[in-house]
Design goal:
Blueprint lengths: L2 H8 L2 H9 L1 H32 L2 H21 L13 H18 L23 H18 L1 H10 L3
Helix pairs in contact: 2-3, 3-4
Length: 163
Amino acid sequence: MSVFVSKFVFSLRFHLQIRSAGEAAVTRYFNWFFWFINAGSIVSFTLVVYVQQEIAFFYGYLICAHSMLLAISIFLVGRNHYLTEPPEGSAVSQTIKIVWQGLKINCCKSKTNTDGTWLDQTKISKGGDFSDLDVENVKRLVPIFSIFLSFPLVSTMMGQVRW
């Protein structure tokens, strides 16, 4: 499941009601949620493929198109029940600002305070300009970003391999 979908699910009004019901209710909700996602995957990899291989590709595509139209219809019918929050800025620009301030503090100023990592100096509690939660989120992103930096190299090497 995509991060965007989980962010969307967390903002639904009924989920807030479930969260107030306790941790067991949240766990039960997400167990059913993931079960239905996996059930949909099983149907798409078995029923749709069977229809396309044994009957006709057109009907397989028709099943997918009707499923998508049904999903869009359900989404539009329920749009009055969604909690919407106005955007508060860009997460990308906030991340860049945190990293930039961390680099400035770490490289350009004296290193008198060596508590924590180079990004910890950007926290409000340590004299920086950003909330502790935002800085912690960026700290979790840094190791993942190093993985994404390897993608061009891996793609280039895979392009050189003859299958």
